[in-house]
Amino acid sequence: MSSNIVHRAAPVDLELRGSDGRTVVGICAPFDQPADIAEHGFRFTETIRRGSFTKTIAERGDRVKFLAQHDARSMPLGRATLLREDAAGLYGEFRVSKTQAGDEVLELINDGALDALSVGMRVIAETWTSNRSARSITEIALAEVSAVNFGAYSGAVILGTRSQSDNVISPEQAARRLRLLDL
């Protein structure tokens, strides 16, 4: 990926749902949750604001790839089937292809070894504090979403996996999601 693409991620709890379990669901990037970032030898606090992904979802939401560890040189694991902004952040659903790599990543997610989502993004609009110790991002061009080992945002969470036929979240799953997001 180009050098101006940055990555943000975070760990999460996980549950497995559905008959085929090939759809990964989660919060890709939380809104209004400051994170400590170290980038190019510079440390600062970063906050992604609600509305940051509106334009990129409209322009290319159906073409966002699902990767492992931001490795754009490897074949994708799958693609986004749903991206939307909600109160918690950028919510995504990703259909994982039935390939060796897809099967391996689903097994790692199921085992809890791979437990975070991360966005590969280009920052389009931002504001900085006068001392450049914090920035607020208001527009992002989303390049990809990855399942990753470690992350920056505690709210960028894999909420679970499910089959294509699952359409609703159970009350237990909703409660778990709220506990994860500290709402």
What would your notes on this structure say?
Strand 8 and strand 9 form a beta hairpin. The protein is globular and about 50 Å long. The protein has three helices and ten strands, in the order ββββαβββαβββα. Strands 1, 2, 3, 4, 5, 6, 7, 8, 9 and 10 form a ten-stranded mixed sheet that branches. It has one domain: Serine Protease, Human Cytomegalovirus Protease, Chain A. By secondary structure, it is an alpha+beta fold. About 9% of the residues have low confidence.
Q: Secondary structure elements and their pairing?
A:
Elements lengths: L5 E6 L11 E8 L4 E5 L2 E7 L5 H7 L4 E4 L9 E8 L3 E8 L3 H12 L4 E13 L5 E15 L9 E5 L8 H11 L2
Parallel strand pairs: 4-9, 5-9
Antiparallel strand pairs: 1-8, 2-7, 2-10, 3-4, 5-6, 6-7, 8-9
Pfam families: Peptidase_S78
InterPro entries: Peptidase_S78_dom, Prohead_protease
Keywords: Hydrolase, Protease, Viral release from host cell
Please trace the helix and strand order, writing H or E for each element. EEEEHEEEHEEEH
CATH topology: Serine Protease, Human Cytomegalovirus Protease, Chain A
Q: Which descriptor suits the 3D outline?
A: globular
Round the Cα radius of gyration to an integer and report it: 16 Å
CATH architecture annotation: Alpha-Beta Barrel
Domains, number: 1
The first-level CATH class is given as: Alpha Beta
- The assigned structural class equals alpha+beta
DSSP strand content:
35-45%
Sheet bearing the most strands, described?
A: 10 strands, mixed
Provide mean pLDDT, rounded.
83
Number of strands: 10
Pfam family, one: Peptidase_S78
Protein name: Prohead serine protease domain-containing protein
GO molecular function: peptidase activity
InterPro entries: Peptidase_S78_dom, Prohead_protease
